[in-house]
Amino acid sequence: MPSTRKQHHLILASRSPRRKYLLRKAGLVFEVIPGTFDESAVPLTDPGDYVKTLALAKAEEIAVRRPEAWVIGADTIVFIEGAVLGKPASRTAAREMLRRLSGQTHQVYTGYAVCCRAAGRMITEAVRTDVRFKELTEAEIEWYIQTGEPFDKAGAYAIQGLGTFLVRSINGSYTNVVGLPVCEVIEALIREGAVFLEGSEGASS
User: Fold this and answer.
1) pLDDT for 1-59, tens place per residue?
2) What is the DSSP string of 22-41?
3) Which of 13, 148, 177, 189 has the smallest number of CB atoms closer than 10 Å to its CB?
């Protein structure tokens, strides 16, 4: 089945299986080259600015090595009441995070960067989604922890997995909560001419 999009060479500068899955589901063909950028070197500021800074740093690290390619970088955080919830390192940490999120609305911020050094282009934005959790019982928290799903997820949950039952509602992009605001990223790629609809005006073979 022919693709409806044509594109330049794309690189995803992330090891996240969720971002890879989302972009593939959107019909993009890309190479995966994770970087080695030390996120701890960046101090937490405004959450939107923070994720944009990290996304750009990740993209630029790969773009320097592959200047002809369009590189996509991203970073996602869970933010509640002024605090960032990272990936829990233990059952105790996961339990504390889930209790904190229970019955509350938190924010998921993803910063994304799209850049190509050969073209001299660099775009970075942040997308926010508000997520409201149901009131969790202790039994629900313990069951979810024992599944093992919380331990490689920011905020100790995966909205696209078993953790879908935790979420009462969302306001904003669903894919942003999964790890990449696909609509906004593809819009940026189309605007920059890195991806275009086949047969659209100005498209070249």
Assistant:
1) 334 567 789 999 999 999 999 999 999 999 999 988 887 778 888 999 999 999 999 99
2) HHHHTT---EE------GGG
3) 148
pLDDT digits (tens, 9 = 90+) for 66-106: 999 999 999 999 999 999 998 999 999 999 999 999 999 99
91-101 vs 138-146: helix crossing angle, rounded to 10: 140
Among residues 38, 46, 49, 75, the one annotated as catalytic is 75
What is the distance between the alpha carbons of residues 88 and 155, in angstroms, rounded to a whole number? 7
Instruction: Determine the Cα–Cα distance for residues 130 and 108; give it in Å rounded to an integer.
Output: 6
- d(CA 70, CA 198) in angstroms, rounded, equals 19
Q: Up-side HSE of residue 109: CA atoms within 13 Å toward CB?
A: 23
| Residue 114 CA neighbour count, 13 Å, CB half | 22
75 annotated active-site: yes
**Start-end of H helices in the chain:** 17-25, 47-65, 91-101, 138-146, 174-178, 182-191
Cα 153 from Cα 105, distance rounded (Å): 18
Per cent of the chain over pLDDT 90 is 84
